[in-house]
Fold each of these.
Amino acid sequence: MLEYVLLGMLMEGQMSGYDLKKTIDHTVGHFYAASFGSLYPALKRLADKGFVSVFETADSKNKKLYSLLPEGKEVFLKWLEEPQAASREQLIRIFFFDYLDKDVRLRRLQEYLYTAEHELRALEAVQSIVAEELAGMEHPEDYYYRVSVLGYGLNHARMQKQWIKDIMERKDLGHVKPES
Amino acid sequence: MLEYVLLGMLMEGQMSGYDLKKTIDHTVGHFYAASFGSLYPALKRLADKGFVSVFETADSKNKKLYSLLPEGKEVFLKWLEEPQAASREQLIRIFFFDYLDKDVRLRRLQEYLYTAEHELRALEAVQSIVAEELAGMEHPEDYYYRVSVLGYGLNHARMQKQWIKDIMERKDLGHVKPES
DNA sequence: AGTTGCATGTAAGTGGTTACATGATTCA
DNA sequence: TGAATCATGTAACCACTTACATGCAACT
């Protein structure tokens, strides 16, 4: 996972490990954390595999600049267009979807939409079972918070579904603006 | 984490490891996965620490029933009322909030609301910076998907904020119903 | 002179997963 | 009788975190 994120970040150009960490932190950092303890060994592995090249700067700072090599780019793009991905991984992939052909991208997004709709229906099914169970109880209010997290799940699934729909249509990025 | 989830699930009554897995899967399973490979060793640790008791059934199935011991209950409730929790852990804690005193619960939820609002403001700040950067570009559409995940983050943060507000007010669980 | 930021790295530990191994029970 | 489900457990592995260790550079 981290290795692909690093390759993806290097698509924009050469960077040091330190800068890669910063870039990850203030882009996908809200849902994907990378620590130096995992980042530096990952960069070493990528260099060993010949996916990135290392340029040691002479500016006395002991800084290393990593660049994407053709094989690394290939591996990254291959990963990017793969179908199926766990929900956390979906989000990271979408972050890099500007690098993907329009048709492959739309196919993947359609698949993600499908899984989101599936998830939503599954949660709605659970909800109606829970609603029935609750109706036959003396003190349904004792289960308020248990049930509330189901509500969270439903809110999340609905939001996710709508968001994927929006980005498939390439809705104006303004939908992202604050309401003010 | 898993150990607390197991203790929490045992608050309802005795259960086997297998049943605990099922219960986790169809309650908090949507945001917390537990595999047998982590579950059984966790139960053993809980038994070794004296937090749960093990009753081996004689029904030839080699089934073990786990029950919460007073010390285990104490440890669980102590964990539950702790302040600060990572966002994934917040959700799991809230699932068990029916076991918490009203006043402690409201204090924790108020804190969670605070962090949600903080997160939202941080994302809105990032968004206005990104909007400026985008305005000074020749091809802002080349960054559509990069920016779209920021939109996801904003949607998520807003949803989370509203949800916490709702459950603080103990809004009708009906808000959870499908729109149909 | 001291703190913060830049910069890289290692070692031990954590919290899991995956795959395997075993065996009883239930139901079609 | 064979498949699905119930039931428990281990061993190898994995991706990562935390804490540590080092040192230079920039600012104040």
Amino acid sequence: MFRGINPLSLDGKGRLSLPAKYRQHLLDEGNGQLVLTIDRDRCLLLYPLPVWEEIERKLIQLSSTNSRARALKRLLLGHAEDCCLDASGRILLPAPLREFANLEKRVVLVGQGNKFEIWSEQGWYAWRESLLAEDQDQHGEPLPDLDTLAF
Amino acid sequence: MFRGINPLSLDGKGRLSLPAKYRQHLLDEGNGQLVLTIDRDRCLLLYPLPVWEEIERKLIQLSSTNSRARALKRLLLGHAEDCCLDASGRILLPAPLREFANLEKRVVLVGQGNKFEIWSEQGWYAWRESLLAEDQDQHGEPLPDLDTLAF
DNA sequence: AGTTTAGTGGCGAAAAGTGGGAAAAAGTGG
DNA sequence: CCACTTTTTCCCACTTTTCGCCACTAAACT
């Protein structure tokens, strides 16, 4: 399971070195082959290949009559890029994806169970603070309680 | 069961030595493996690994239905960090989490049954006093009666 | 008062993250 | 189809961070 927040830097070539603690697991699950795509919230998603293939299968089965489903499929499949861990544990983020997520030097890798999210540092903290602020004001529904998961 | 408040110090590297009375219990329950995450009230939560895994399982099932739940998942899973008791009974609090909870030198560890909360000393006393003051003013809902837990 | 145990601090070896150069490959235009 | 330019990939080197270990102080217990 991928967890936790990892502040990292992209180098000049757009490479991102994945934290060492995850590398072995990524090598076991799919030989270090990964798939990168975009998320609605302007971050990138990073899946181990086997996990992505499962999602891809479901995406393809989605009915083409529904226009929302077609749109989702086009977005996710259309932006999906294979990438591979290199010898020093890094992956290359293609320029178009970096631009989409506004990734420059400072980046945050966020573990999300079966996948990672990649945010620009600025984007991540902005998202977090706005969520916490909104929660405090009780504008939206409250968040569920953690232990019981009751709302 | 974890109870009580423990004033403690972080050292220069952000390490926190857990009170000796809890150590054996933490070693029994999950080999001293712990998970640290954040709480909305700007403190940290410290779970024994088995307890956290139960919560994590529920979190993952919860997602996709409700957008608030998705946000909660991103927040909690995204900030969850494994940590481990070291040889002298300490855990390392990662810098991003320390910053989130404004932890500097003086810290309070608060027992909460199946988990601990970690507050900055200042944050803890401020929270407590403001809660009591607000309760007295009858601004918010009153606190329930302790013995009956009726409102 | 001596002995033990808890909490704290800090050094140093090892590992992780980052940057850059050169070889290889791919793309582009004549 | 070949030559040139740009991009990609591989590899090595440097710097910083991390983590295990030991040492010190203070409090508690005998």
